[in-house]
Specification:
It contains three helices and twelve strands. The chain is elongated, with a radius of gyration of 33 Å. It has a four-stranded parallel beta sheet with strand order 1-2-4-6, with no helix packed on it. Strands 7-8-9-10 form a four-stranded mixed beta sheet, with no helix packed on it. α1 (about 125-130) crosses α3 (about 170-220). It has helices at about 125-130, 155-160, 170-220; strands at about 15-20, 35, 40, 50-55, 60, 65, 75, 85-90, 100, 105, 135-140, 145-150. It is of the alpha/beta class. The model has no long low-confidence stretch (mean pLDDT about 95). A hairpin with a 7-residue loop joins β11 and β12 (about 145-150). The chain starts with 16 loop residues before the first strand and ends with a helix.
Length: about 220
């Protein structure tokens, strides 16, 4: 403990570290926690393996880390967050500026200038693979009532050769779906053109039938 009243009320805890005035002073019997900053503390007693870092940062659950107080609006990793909630890096070695918006939307870096080694994709082939991709409802091992719907990473990697067999990026799933939509759009255009041709043929046939009916009626009157 370093600082006035740091860990002041911890009487039987162990493995705690506190740096700053009033850091971790509120609760006794805490174990293996870290409090760094003026009044960085816990809000409930008896926490284990938690951390609060920053002015007035407060942690309320064991095995949780809190960075900053409720006034903090951005975190930067390798770069300043700017107007983003979280921003990662400045280049290909540290995240390319991917960020979480203040509204809570994760946004990948995707400018053409940041990319290389482009390869054209066959949208029809991709659509065929999408049709073969198993998509099931499941939950992560050890979670309770938190179900999801989606493909398996190993199936996705085997079919599309992006990412790895343990994880799927949102960008790759989006790209595959875009290719599938493009293929469906092309197929729909072909079907639409064929339908128009068939309707034109039907129209000409109806006109011919009408002319023949008129001719038959005229012949009938003459007879």
């Amino acid at each position: 403990a370093l600082g006035r009243n740091a860990l002041y009320n911890v009487t039987t805890g162990s493995g705690n570290t506190a740096v700053g005035y009033l850091a971790g002073d509120s609760y006794a019997n805490a174990n293996n926690n870290t409090f760094i900053g003026y009044n960085a503390d816990a809000t409930v007693p008896g926490l284990t393996n938690s951390a609060a870092i920053g002015f007035n940062a407060a942690v309320s659950s064991s095995n949780n880390f809190v960075f900053g107080n409720s006034s903090v609006a951005g975190w930067g990793f390798g770069t300043a967050p700017g107007s983003e909630a979280i921003k990662v890096g400045t280049g290909p070695a540290n995240g390319n500026g991917a960020h979480l918006t203040l509204g809570g939307v994760w946004t990948d870096a995707s400018a053409r200038s940041k990319k290389e080694d482009f390869t054209e994709m066959n949208s029809e082939e991709t659509l065929s693979k999408i049709a073969q991709l198993p998509v099931t409802r499941w939950k992560y091992s050890g979670t309770e009532n938190e179900y999801h719907i989606g493909p398996m990473a190993d199936d996705f990697f085997r079919m599309f050769q992006v990412g790895d067999d343990q994880s799927i990026s949102a960008m790759d799933k989006t790209g595959v779906l875009f290719l599938g939509v493009q293929a469906l759009t092309i197929e729909n255009k072909k079907q639409d053109d064929l339908l128009k041709q068939q309707l034109e043929i039907i129209k000409r046939q109806n006109e011919r039938i009408e002319r023949l009916e008129c001719l038959v009626e005229e012949l009938r009157r003459k007879l």
